[in-house]
Amino acid sequence: MIKKRVEASPLCEIFCNKNKTVLQMGETLRYPRLAETMATIAKHGADAFYTGKISQDLVKDVQDAGGTLSLEDLASYQARVTDPWTVPLGEYKLYIPPPPAGGAILGLVLNIMKGFNLSPSSVEGEQQVLTFHRFAEASKFARGQKKSVRDPNFSSGKEAPRLIEDDFADRIRSMIRSNASRDPAYYNFTPSVDRQGTTHLSVLAEDGTAVSVTSSINRIFGSAIYSPKTGVIFNDQLLDFCGIADRMTAGEQPPSSMAPSLLLSQSRGKTLVIGASGGSLITSAMALTIMNHVWFGKSLHDAVSAPLLYVDANNGLNFESGFNERLREQLLERGHVKGAWQYFFNVVNAVTKEGGCISAMSDLRKLGKAAGY
């Protein structure tokens, strides 16, 4: 899928050999234009990008490709700095990015699951199917609330904050039946499009400073169009409005599943820096990793590597390769419908510090490796 997308797009100029086939593992990728752009920004600062020569080259390449970006658009852009939202999770506090990022959806899933008093025994014996059934149901309800996550500068701002309130999680939890699933309408489902994409980095510094950062050009390789003069690949971020928002306004930022997060426990002196890539799979991947590590007692390696259970845009349950076969059958017996999702691009990167012990895990699904000094 990815190979064909690259070979049929202008990106082949970067990622293909002279014979127009995608570079193979071990071959050298040369990207001099982007290197020059990054070096210029490093030397001259952000103004070089927004108002300097880079902006002129970038805008011309966008317009030559049929886009409408203007010099004024770049010059007037302002990054927003906002405080994180906080969700208490027992002895931990979860710090998440507010809308239009996907932190509130992640917080809702974990807040619902928190009320089931999970422990390592929750994934043993017959309790395991009940726990994963509840997780699937919580994910369905959370997916039904995605319409509440919008740019706060273009919405009332009242719907999203309730998603992380205990009263709301309690109400949703009371609607979960232990032995059956329901039709999509029960979860307030609206048909939408599943996404793939993004990249994530989790960092823990020597002085304890922690950074969790997710970036995205939306789908894999974004719009599949790039700027020959700057090397910048253009995003297709507006696609995130499709199937979720009923309208969009000029200047509005689209909703996103991205949810770079921190978990802090003062009682244990523990920090967990975590985030994920994978588009629509981000919420499930992060929620299950956090549950596996914090509540089920798994090592960071095992928590990140555990096979994923994912609820798709059609209310179907999708099981990553390696998912327990008997557990899969038991979940389907409770009325869940099997989905047809094929591509599990979920990738979690996480770092923990507890006392003087530091552990890091970069997801093996993307051949990741943790780096330290």
UniProtKB/TrEMBL annotation:
It comes from the Eukaryota. GO terms for biological process: glutathione catabolic process; inflammatory response; leukotriene D4 biosynthetic process. Belongs to the gamma-glutamyltransferase family. GO terms for cellular component: plasma membrane. L-glutamate binds at residues 216-218, 240, 256-257, 279. It comes from Anguilla anguilla (European freshwater eel). This is Gamma-glutamyltransferase 5a. It holds the Pfam family G_glu_transpept. The active site is at 198 (nucleophile). One of its GO terms (molecular function) is glutathione hydrolase activity. SUPFAM superfamilies: N-terminal nucleophile aminohydrolases (Ntn hydrolases). The lineage of its organism: Eukaryota, Metazoa, Chordata, Craniata, Vertebrata. InterPro entries: GGT_lsub, GGT_peptidase, GGT_ssub_C, Ntn_hydrolases_N. Signal peptide: none annotated.
